[in-house]
Structures are given as structure tokens and as C-alpha cells.
């Protein structure tokens, strides 16, 4: 892989051991994937932030490093809200270790905003190169924003943040972003025919790791977020196109004549929606937008929750909408920043959880050991307040 | 034998060969260095100080940190040889400072397990110290 003169100096150790190690990671990945060079990035999003996932070994590695990020970088959700973790039911031992992880990243110049929706906090433009990690954020950046990122692992995203570059391969190259399969979504009139997390949950299993071009739907940005998050969870979708909706379908004309065609039927989507008793309700996977907080506030206004009801959002988004947070919390629901239903040990204590997300439906059983039920946000509110 | 350099450094040890991929997360105990994945060809064997050869990594990316943990505990392989490197093992070897090469020629597979070999991760080379 080609390195310029300053990259070579970093690799030779002239700018310290940590930067040298980070450049070694980028060079090795570039070699593994056949990249010809490094490309400058405009931002990074680093996974491996919850102590629940990286454990004491990941923490000790982070603490051994000494450098500062070269580009704006944020974290994936951590295992607890940074403030008010006691009320959220997190134990002191976990909280202490989690705080050490956050401090280690802060020392490395990573902005301690812990979210899977960094695009709500900093504008990301069409064509920007990124090194993002979290699967739904990667799908959103590539598909909805038209930015370019591979799905990075924790160390490779951190390396890219510190060096400010990433190997130029995969989805950074325009020729690798063409659709590989056509997905036709059957229109329907049933109660969940337009549940984007449900559609994505079914579509992802059929698409696998291919790039789909989806036809027959007109989702808005929040709906695209739910769709992509679910496809990234049940498949390995890092980029999807929606005909006449997502930006690259309006910039390029794709020839889809030779591609496989897949159908997502209304019955397949409806079959996800089994009605079972649940102990708690959680929404905000991926983290809620301001519009989603507004919808929840309207649904919860004047009601009282009868079950634990958690709403997850980026701290910056919650802080910018105090009125909506106020309405939601007056119902007894809690708006929780920094963490989520998948990465927090708090959720392990429930035997069954209702979610509005196709992604959470896929991950809650394995990550939390709980039964998961999916519904619309309206159904989630009904169950939580009945 | 010439392959491709993945992680720098030089390491010597007895060759431990797995025909199957290895998942370090939940597959290798970082406190003992022993392969614990049930039914794995290397189940019960220690990777500590060995030159560990296997086709490629599998499983969670947290496996990179398990390789680092093995090194911190003094139980890491002396070197790693893969048929084809992938990110979990490559990143793990780099952060743990374990020499690693991949893409060796076919003659490598004829070396008997237990042969003492030296992996030169800087040059991407593997050599036999003793000929049996």
C-alpha cells in the first residue's frame, strides 16, 4: 500500500509509539483488503465503548495508549448513562470500570458523546469519507447521507481517528457501491405493513451481505434509519439504496437487469408481531431523533406508565429538546442518554422486553438474554401504559 | 519460506497447527492460554509460547482484545501464522506485538507439528531451526 512521506514517518515511530501502532493497524488492514492507499476522513465513530462488550482486556489496552485524535470522533453507546447511573440500576463495580473506559477515550481526544446517531450532532455531507463502527450508523451514513465508510472494528476506527485516515477499499470506492440485489417490498394495508424495522428485519435475512436496491417504498429519514438498522442486524447490510429516495439512486443510474430479485411480503412482516406479556418497554434503537421524541411525547402526554419504559437518545439530542423530554418523563417514562437496550447490563435483568426496533428484536435475546416483542411506537406506549 | 508480513517482530517456538479457524473470544482462555472451544481440534492445548498456525480467525472482534490479554498474562503465542489474515487476528497480533505472517507457500503445510520454527514478521518469513 502506498504511504506518503509523513505516513512513513509515523510508521517508523517518529511520532510516538501509539501513532506507530495505529499506523501499523491501518497498513495491515489495507494489505488484508488490497487497498492501494490511505484516504483522509472527516470523522470517526469508535465502537468498543461499553465495558459490557470490551471487558477488562479492552480497557487495559486503551489505557496503554497515548495520542490524540486527529479528526472529530465520538463513541458508540456505553453501558450506562454517564450521569444518573444509580437511578438506572447500574452496579457500582460496573459503573467504575465503565467510567475508566470513558476516561481512557477522553484522554485519546475522543469526544465523549456516546451514540449510534452521530449524524444528528454533526453534519455529514454527501461523498465524505468516514471511519464509523456501529452497524446502523454505517448503514445510515452510506445510504441516507451518501457518505462513504466501511464497517470498522473498534481498534480500526480508533486508529483511523488518531491518524485521520483509513485504508481506501470497500465502500470508499464508488465502483463497490452498486446494488447487488433488488428487493421488492409488497404494499399492504395491515397494521404493520409500514413498520420499517419489521420490513428491514425480514429483508436483511434475505439480503445477507449484499447491497440491496429496494423498490416500492417511500420512507422518510427516520424510517430509513429504522430500515437500515434492522437490515444491518439480521443481514450484514452496510449500504442500501431505495429507488428514487436515497441520494445515490438520483446521482447514478443503476442497471439492475441481471440482479437477483427478492420479495418482502406483508405476511412475513406481520409474522414478527406476536403479542406476548412483557416486563419492560424500550424504544430508541437506534437512538431517537428529535422528531421521534416529539412523537413519543404526543403519545405519552397525559398518560402514566405501568411498566418500566426507557427511551434512548444521544445526550445532545435530549439536551436540545428539554420540553419533549419533560413531557415524556412526566408520564413515568425515562429518557436515557449515552447507552441503549443492547449494550447496557441494566436490561439483562428483564425476562422480556418490548421494542419498536427491528434491530433490537434481533439483538435483545442474545445480548440481554431476554425475550423480545416488537410493536409500533404507538403499541409500545399502549403496552407500557395499560 | 516467504509469506506476507502482517505484524512486526521475531518469534520462535514449537509449531502448533489447527486445521480449523480459531475464535479467541470464548475459544481461548486468556487466564490459562488453553483452547477451550468444545470440539476444536486444539481443545485442551496451550497456545503459550507456541508458533500458532491456523487458517484464519472467526467470531467476535473482541477476540483482538483476548489476544492482547494473553500477551499481558505471559501466555501469548510466540508468533501467529495464518493462511489468510483477517482483521480480528491481524489487529490482535499488532496490538499485542506478536509477530504474524500469512500467505506462506504450500510446502509450509508439510512441516510436522512440533517443529521449532522462527517467524520473522518484519520480513514476512518463516524458517525451520531444526530439520527432523
Automatic annotation (TrEMBL), chain A:
Alphabetized Pfam families for the sequence: AcnX
EC number: 4.2.1.182
InterPro entries linked to this entry: PMDh-L-like_dom (IPR007506)
Enzymatic reactions: (R)-5-phosphomevalonate = (2E)-3-methyl-5-phosphooxypent-2-enoate + H2O
Any one of the GO BP annotations: isoprenoid biosynthetic process
Residues annotated as domain Phosphomevalonate dehydratase large subunit-like: 1-382
Superkingdom field: Archaea
Gene Ontology molecular function: any one: lyase activity
Keyword Iron included in the entry's annotation: yes
Enzyme class: lyase
Keyword annotations from UniProtKB, A to Z: Iron, Isoprene biosynthesis, Lyase
This protein's pathway: Isoprenoid biosynthesis; isopentenyl diphosphate biosynthesis via mevalonate pathway
Family the entry assigns: Belongs to the AcnX type II large subunit family.
Record function comment: Component of a hydro-lyase that catalyzes the dehydration of mevalonate 5-phosphate (MVA5P) to form trans-anhydromevalonate 5-phosphate (tAHMP). Involved in the archaeal mevalonate (MVA) pathway, which provides fundamental precursors for isoprenoid biosynthesis, such as isopentenyl diphosphate (IPP) and dimethylallyl diphosphate (DMAPP).
Subunit text: Heterodimer composed of a large subunit (PMDh-L) and a small subunit (PMDh-S).
Designated name of the protein: Phosphomevalonate dehydratase large subunit
Organism: Methanoculleus formosensis
From TrEMBL, chain B:
UniProt-listed InterPro entries: PMDh-S-like (IPR012016), PMDh-S-like_dom (IPR002840), PMDh_S (IPR020794)
Pathway: Isoprenoid biosynthesis; isopentenyl diphosphate biosynthesis via mevalonate pathway
Biological process per Gene Ontology, one example term: isopentenyl diphosphate biosynthetic process, mevalonate pathway
Domain of life the protein comes from: Archaea
GO MF, one annotated term: hydro-lyase activity
UniProt record similarity statement: Belongs to the AcnX type II small subunit family.
Protein name (record): Phosphomevalonate dehydratase small subunit
